[in-house]
Q: What sequence folds into this?
């Protein structure tokens, strides 16, 4: 079992999944992490889209929208991973985004949390 869960909370965000999930899947090493979509009771095409295009992604589906914190808290209760990354559905990940975070946590057990540098999607070319 992998030690890292990359969790994306979704609620009626099929358009975000279509735009941003490909980078997460492509740039998340499968020997370190599992990508998990937690669906907060979507009524759009999110679930059919995931089943058709990403059948290998783990999904946790809730019966209703529990909100941002409620949804993440519920999904975390279901997980059994050493590390959990909460990734918004509108985040594009670059190549090698996860390894530095994982290595930092592994080499510094006294650290409780870390995060990567975030760059606005609209301004990413200026960095």
A:
């Amino acid at each position: 079992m992998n030690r890292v869960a990359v969790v994306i909370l979704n609620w009626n965000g099929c358009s975000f999944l279509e735009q941003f999930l490909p980078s997460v899947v492509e740039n998340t090493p499968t020997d370190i992490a599992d990508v998990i979509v937690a669906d907060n009771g979507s009524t759009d095409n999110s679930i059919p889209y995931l089943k058709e295009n990403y059948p290998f992604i783990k999904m946790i589906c809730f019966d209703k929208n529990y909100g941002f914190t409620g949804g993440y808290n519920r999904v975390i209760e279901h997980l059994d991973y050493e590390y959990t990354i909460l990734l918004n559905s509108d985040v594009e990940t670059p190549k090698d985004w996860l390894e530095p975070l994982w290595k930092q946590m592994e080499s510094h057990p006294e650290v409780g949390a870390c995060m990567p540098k975030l760059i606005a999607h609209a301004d990413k070319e200026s960095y």
The radius of gyration is 15 Å. Strands lie at 4-10, 33-39, 58-61, 83-87.
